[in-house]
Amino acid sequence: MNASEPVPSAEAQLRAAPPHALVATAGRLLAERFGARDVTLLLADYALTVLQPVACLPHTADPVSAHDSPAGTAFTAQKPVVEVTADPAAQLVHLPITVRGDRLGVLSVRVPPASADAGTVLRLGEVATALGHEVVTAGRDTDLYLQARRTRRLTLAAEMQWQLLPGRGCARDEYVIGAHLEPAYAIGGDNFDWSTGADHLTLTVTDGMGQGIDASLLTSLAVGALRNARRAGIGLADQACLADQAVFSQYGGKLYASTLLLRFDLATGAVRAVDAGSPQLYRQRGPTIERIELEAQMPLGMFEETLYEEQTFHVEAGDRLVAISSGVHGTRSAATGQAFGEGVLRQVLSATRQTSPHETARSVVAGLMEHVGGEELLADAAVVCLDWTGRNAATA
Question: What is this structure's pTM?
């Protein structure tokens, strides 16, 4: 490069790097600009239990806890963590990587102590964010980062379902969404989906009947039909009608998909809803937790040409909404036979009121697994948590 030419930005250099070479490119940039010696990208696994280093793929180096480690603290708290090491000439900076509210993992950078000041950590975080955006984009062209998220092989049904999801989080000024699925490596029919626009947010939670490949194929059809109808610009009730027709045409009523559809007006907090089956919705407003009772309508594909009707309710600034699939509210303890139900759910929601939506969704599933008394669930469980801020004069 000619000395008179400007040095490309970190973002430009990462965009120009081959998909598989993003970590190496980031390491070179950080070494040149901050004297970094070691740079490690750790991605959260599907169960959100560990952070997996991207190295030696298709296998990775030893994982670290996503909760009980310095890197895990950076991931859960979504704040940089500076770890003092045994080497007096270096400190380890752990930088959370989040893309539009979707938590991907952590970038760990070993730097000289002089480079661990607040200003430098901020600039390191900017590089980490740029790397995160490129990792998401690179996922279209390489399996490298998807492989790094796995502690073991996914079932085929789970592979299909994870590819169908939009992510595990989304954030704007008006709201923050966090979501979680279990059993992460063997899910079949549970799904969540969302789409945000200038003035509206559409959110769905779907529970396909059955297990394994059959459930995954059913849910893929239902979600694809809902997306097709949504992208045609039609109303929420008609989206449900068209998806219902698509599922019935394929399965003739033998299989069906329970779905909760929500459409939020970002300016007013008005919510249109269609309850087509078993997912349940709870609202946490201050200390009060209440189930939002919606008219139970037929699941998608149960009968031919079902007509659906919308209902409305409102959310206010500070509200938290939690949507759960039947694999959560209908699961029973193997020891006592007691359903997870509202009682245990309310306890978990009360205990996690001050945590992020991401951690609340994970905690609900963790509470469910503790209630069941096993390491893995027999039925899919989906939890979506949304914190509502709303729109004011500053964001309008």
Answer: 0.92
